[in-house]
Amino acid sequence: MNWALWVSFATISAVNIVTPGPANLNTVRRAIQLGIYQVAPTILGNALGLAVGGAICAAGITSFVMASDLLWSFFQWAGVAYLAWLGARLLIRTETLSLHSQTDAAVPACTLFFEAFLLAATNPKALLFYMALFPQFWNRSGEWRHKRVFSS
Questions:
Q1: pTM for the whole thing?
Q2: Which class for 49: exposed (0-12), middle (13-18), buried (19 or more C-beta within 10 A)?
Q3: Which of 5, 7, 41, 121 is such that its CA lies 20 to 30 A from the CA of 78?
């Protein structure tokens, strides 16, 4: 990959990483709730979930789904149902955050990890980002493109 293409890819990725999404907000929430040192499983779960989503999109699964009207419709409605469930869960849930020096009751590390993993792996923002980005840099033979993608 040439330097200009790599910089473009890295810049687009960095902008996506720093924009707040559900995974980032979950990490911040858990850090405030549990403390900075106990949030490591959340960070690892988030990173692995994003990696799995990226690998699935890079493998070409998204082009298969988008080619089938039935699968595309299924995933659209599954996404609507998932987002509605998340929203209803947040509206119904009662939780208090303590801003004192003492942290709340400990949450098991595996719970933090799987919560973050599922949130990141099913995040529509990340999956749409991968679907839009990877085809720009990846060719059909499975290699990174060596030509300039963005023309001036």
A1: 0.63
A2: buried
A3: 41
